Amino acid sequence: MKDGIPGSSSIKESTTATSSADTSGRMDSGNVESDKPVSDGRNGDGATSSSGSPWYQLRKEAITFVSQTLQRGRKNLWQLMTSRVSVLLSASAAASTSIHQFLKNYEDLSTFILAGEAFCGVEAFEFRQKLKGVCGNYFAAFHRQNVFALKMVLERETWLRLPPETAQIISFAGLVGDGAPLIAASDGRSSNSRVLRADKSANKVDTGAKKSGFSPWLRNGNPFLLKVSSSHKEAHNSSPLNGTTSVEYEGNADNIHGDVSPRGDENHINGANSISEEENEDLLADFIDEDSQLPSRISKPNLSRNYSLHFSNDDFTAQTGSSLCLLRSMDKYARLMQKLEIVNVEFFKGICQLFEMFFYFVFETFGLQNMNSSGKTSTDSLNYRLKTALSQVTQDCEEWIKTSSGSLSSSTAHADLTPTAPQNTNFGSPPGTSFGLKERCAGADTVALVARILHRSRTNLQSLLLKSNTAIVEDFFVHLVGAVPDLVEHIHRTTARILLHINGYVDRIANAKWELKELGMEHNGYVDLLLGEFKHYKTRLAHGGIQKEVQDLLLDYGLEIVAETLIEGLSRVKRCTDEGRALMSLDLQVLINGLQHFVSINVKPKLQIVETFIKAYYLPETEYVHWARAHPEYSKNQIVGLINLVASMKGWKRKTRLEVLEKIE
């Protein structure tokens, strides 16, 4: 019995405190009414009373004293409860549970906070911060798991396109804004577990407590019992997918609000959902959902009209295993942003990091596997936006990529990510192979697809965050997602350099005989060899299993690479006469006529840059500084080589040559 006394005392104190919440909230309006029965009773005895009588004043002071004491007791009781719950939240198990269970805990804690604030009339600032810290710790562990999972998928990626019917099964409603949180609301009273934002909570406590106090919670009953009963009903009435978590993770926009299948409704109505039938349904499950730990079924959703508007056929045909894994993770993060708004900015940063890892891996896989005609790696030719994006990625994801960058660079050097291709198609293999052309194009297309979906999700993601976080969203989409077209172009140019075997032609052109006394009718032999290489290049593209649009794009880049090779070779020529310059023009014209047979576009504009460089040989010495500044498309070494050649062949004074070079530099 002694053990029961404190419990009964606490219940009594809580009940009395609860009653005093409404009493104190209506103190001024209820004084006269509460005194009226006593006055009537005394009037019945023939006595006359007034509001200024000593008895009335004593009664009023007593009520005020009791009310204040109970109010202080409510705050003490609330502090005691929050301190004990805080101890439970400090346990390691609080941050290691499944998503499904953590969201349920978060919803219960949200209800607990709102009820407690209404009970004592004071904002639970410290406990809110405690809950925010717990959510932050859970995100850190959750994000770490997703990062390692994505790294594992990327390291085993074959870069083959998935069948369209496979990609169509999954939507990304959480990203583009058509989805709901991972778990649906428990019941109609779930509005009690509103967002725990500090900027809203103060107004909620001040206005709600003064107007209604704790009385609405008394009228509605125990909110936790309502959720338990509702969850019990959902467990019996759910579809074979057993829970909204797995449905929404698969992107089923039609079932994200806890809608049950027709079969489930029928069984429930007819009372046929017996234990044996439930066991049979579990045996028919396709997998166990890792979040809810419930048996789940794979079902192809009926795609809504909004879904078809968001995605095109190209979006379904460009998916690879890694892009699908990435988008599913980001979609899950976006849904958690809706549910855990107290830390939703952290989930957005997680989306950014996942995409940064994907961006970096694609670049390392397809953007570093070549040496250009000047002997430098392709990173020397990166434009400013792509360099800035890569620098930002290495800073933001240093802890994630530093452990794998070495292994990635070593593995990608031999195209280990294309095991479906024959062994002789690895990078660095003999000429005449496709060099994983299909896989390289799939990598470029899939990163472009992810960028398109992110652009469509920008408005939705921005709406989930506070206005103070606008800069984070802007920076991500401008500097990283905006650099994807540059990455795609760089991948295609790198592919063209690998497939077009003309790196050795720089020395051939530079070592040709250009110091002629008279011009003949024959062009140099390297021209025919270049045309032969370009013909083989076109054949590789035609038999590489890629789309016609990509073939034309790679042919276009091939023409530009031919022009770069010619300029680099001509800039290294040491001795050349006027007749030699005329032979350069003849070689160029023969090359243009030959290349025109391989492509449908006009070749001459693509090689105009070579003709301009050849004609610069005839400029007066006073024009070279202005010409160099007017043509930034040529590198500094190429311009210096041209000036040294002209100065040597035209007999410039050493002082004049040095002055021109100094002005150019």
Automatic annotation (TrEMBL):
Residues 14-24 have a biased composition (Low complexity). GO terms for cellular component: cytosol; EARP complex. It holds the Pfam family Syndetin_C. One of its GO terms (molecular function) is SNARE binding. It comes from the Eukaryota. This is Syndetin C-terminal domain-containing protein. InterPro entries: Syndetin_C, VPS50. Coiled coil: none annotated. Residues 237-247 have a biased composition (Polar residues). It comes from Gossypium raimondii (Peruvian cotton). Residues 435-665 form the Syndetin C-terminal domain. GO terms for biological process: endocytic recycling; retrograde transport, endosome to Golgi. Residues 33-43, 256-268 have a biased composition (Basic and acidic residues). Residues 1-53, 233-272 are annotated as: Disordered.
